[in-house]
Amino acid sequence: MIIVVILGENAGEARRMGLIVNRVRFEHKPPGEAEIRREVEARMGSSYGLDSVEQYGLELEVNTMMDGKTESCVLEILRERGGVVVKSPRGGMRPLGRTGAYVRPVSLGGEGILRTTGRAKEAVPMILEALSLGVRYCDTAPAYQQSQDYYGEAFRAAGPAARDSVFLASKTHERTRDRALRLLDDSLRRLGTDRLDLWQMHDLRDLDEIDVLCGKGGALEAAAEAKRDGRVRFIGLTGHHDPDVLLEAMRRFPFDNLLVSINPADARYRPFVPTVVAEARRQRMGVVGMKVLAAGRLLREAPATDLIRYGAAHADTVIVGCSSVAEVRANFAVNESFVPMQDDERRALEQKVEARAEAYDYFKG
Predict the structure, then answer these.
(1) Quick one: 95-360 is in which CATH superfamily?
(2) 57 near 5, Cβ under 8 Å?
(3) What does each C-alpha distance from 212 to 221, 223, 248 come to in angstroms?
(4) Cα Dmax for the chain
(5) Number of neighbours of residue 260 by Cβ within 10 angstroms
(6) Where are the domains of the chain?
(7) Chain-wide mean pLDDT for the chain?
(8) Taking the CA atoms of the chain, what radius of gyration do you get in angstroms?
(9) pLDDT tens digits for 36-90?
(10) CA 21, 27, 28, 29 torsion: positive or negative?
(11) Least confident of 98-107, 142-151, 181-190, 348-357
């Protein structure tokens, strides 16, 4: 078990950033109160540099199973000192570009059962399961029917700490300032939060859209305004249609994050990995992969685990839409046993799908 602790005056900002810092290990039997207090107090008293993530808190990792008494002791000590406590399961964490946030290889997409209307009884338990399994990045969009409503209901059901435990990303399909801001406020209302960690220009397809976004009264004016007033922390773009459009947008505006299609069929037509992903890496942007299963079509070629590993070889995390609690458990199990995909494995998978690649890049323009 890992306990992430965010302390004192930095709690609000650190909670928004999802930072994990300054690990303390108890290697042997469950520690006693004196040992816990000694380790925690020592790190609370440390002097951290202002440009270092360590200023925001500390992380306690208990390698043995933490019993209820020990856990209660830890939490009591931390809360005495003004800490905000977030628990998450063990698992490999990756930096999301230059955002300061950390994510796991597999994250929760906003589609699947979430892109529906009137199915909260199925959708909300699925989100709650993902939260219980330690999801760090959650994706949604106004265009995904009631996806945002389901998230809002799940956060309320899980308790006040649930929203703050994830990096929450939504989008706008509006291209002008005023309409985008109205959509943003509606998203915040539906999600039950006062800010988004990431607000993205959704599904960019042609250069005319970029002209509107970047022009006077465009949606990027809205994004900059929302970032200044705290409604948005980071600004991103998404697309799966034409890499040249995304590259032009990235040339004109300093985006923080890219959400883009990544799967073994990418190379056949309008490839994103050697173009857009490469440029995002050069700019130190976060990279999130989508379409890794090609709406399930690629499962005839390879198991979901391998397809997820392929996407995560190119991205900081991949989002996967799920249709049931069982799918969430199966997909998120990859986080617990994640093994990076090697170059020879990637090439073999690309060669395997090459003859039928057109069936798996159907979303490109």
Answers:
(1) NADP-dependent oxidoreductase domain (3.20.20.100)
(2) yes
(3) 11, 13, 13
(4) 64
(5) 24
(6) 2-88, 95-360
(7) 84
(8) 21
(9) 667 656 655 443 322 333 333 444 444 333 455 555 665 666 556 555 454 444 4
(10) positive
(11) 98-107
Least confident of 64-78, 134-148, 268-282: 64-78
| pLDDT at residue 208 in the model | 97
Pairing assessment for the beta strands 167-172 and 137-139 based on DSSP bridges: parallel
Q: Which residue is listed with tokens 């220009």?
A: 201
Report residue 70: phi and psi, to 5°: -65, -45
Provide the whole-model pTM: 0.77
**71 or 8: whose pLDDT is higher?**
71
The torsion defined by the Cα of 326, 331, 16 and 2, in degrees rounded to 10, comes to: 90
| Cβ neighbours of residue 361 closer than 8 Å, sequence gap 6 or more | 261, 263, 265, 266, 268, 269, 270, 294
CA distance 118 to 112: 14
SS3 201: strand
Q: Which residues contact 327 (CB under 8 A, 6 or more apart)?
A: 112, 126
Model confidence at 282: pLDDT above 50: yes
Helix (H) or strand (E) holding 11: helix 11-17
